[in-house]
Amino acid sequence: MLRSYINIIWTAALLFLGTHTSFAQIQEVFDSIYYKAVSDSVEQYIKSHPNRFKPEQNRIKFTPLAAINYSQEDGLGIIVGTFGQYRNGLDTIAPLSNISALGYVSTKGSIMVGVLGTNYTQSGISRLEYSASARYHDRYFWGIGYRNGINSANKSFYTEASVKVNTGYRFLLSPIFNIAPEIGFDYYNADNFTYTHLSDGLTTNYIGFNIGVDFVLDTKDHPTSPTKGVYINLNQKIYPRVFYNTDPFYRTSIVTDFYFKGWQGAVFAIDLFSESNYGESPWFMWTPLGDDARMRGYYHGRYRDKNTLTAQLELRQKIYKWHGMVVWGGAGNIFPSYKELDIKNTLPNYGIGYRFELGLLMFKLDAGFGRKGEWSIIAGLNHAF
What we know:
Blueprint: H1 2-17, H2 23-37, H3 40-48, E1 61-71, E2 75-86, E3 97-106, E4 111-120, E5 126-141, H4 146-150, E6 156-172, E7 177-191, H5 196-199, E8 205-218, E9 229-239, E10 249-261, E11 266-279, E12 307-320, E13 323-335, E14 347-358, E15 361-369, E16 375-381
Antiparallel strand pairs: 1-2, 2-3, 3-4, 4-5, 5-6, 6-7, 7-8, 8-9, 9-10, 10-11, 11-12, 12-13, 13-14, 14-15, 15-16
Helix pairs in contact: 1-2
């Protein structure tokens, strides 16, 4: 039971910090934790006697949360909060619904608060997913585009404040395919640029709504440590001209992951990612290179443009019991349009990492390396993808 509580604590930390993990993947971890947390006898009773739940068994149960992480951008971060689970209705064998409220502060002045959760229907074949977060942090800025990014003299400072709200209703059409219409709200403000010439002509504040749809095809054999299968995620967002939006713009992102076994204890994982922004989308909506999922070793935000392409191959090798290691190599490119895609501007990426399994989750420590000595150490949870 202690291990189950530890799993819940670290999963909540991943929820708040893991920008690389889709909400569907995170929810699968929650589901798995639920079934692991209860004993076999109780689980079998629930499945065999769904009508015998007593009202007091349906009350929400909260668990306190605490976790730490480390990244180049934020330094050492501490997370505190609470995680609650509850069941909708008495006659159901659906997974438990959940809600989390979290706060985060780091040694480099980043502050974040957030609420997120999932509410299952009694049948378990659909669910409401929601999240809301607010953050304030200091960041470095090199400007927009590859040419500005490679110029070390452009390194400057600015402050960033944002609020994001997203709600989706996911339909589980089959064990491997689901779809979710979404609606969201974004607020953003960038200020205190030390090199104002780099921000001239750029939008520095935004308030607007978005609508979208999220498709997931998932045949992985494990939610967090797959050894075989395919994961495909297509997300399309539209930011219409309504309320505070000035002009409409659009974003399409695609994630394709492949997993297959090698020799004993070895797994090969391939990750392909693309994002395209159309119309007059503001620069802070574009996904920059560099985080704990893709292009590890680059500062998150140094290289950004309207379009992003990345690819990586990772070898995951178990060494002894709960211990393992990974090595990876990859590349990424940013560009304003596909007509202006220049292969010579492709950025390399490679690295090595340590893994320690913790139930359904695992602790990771990665050292990532990039162009001309760019590197960073990342401590966190779970595989990169």
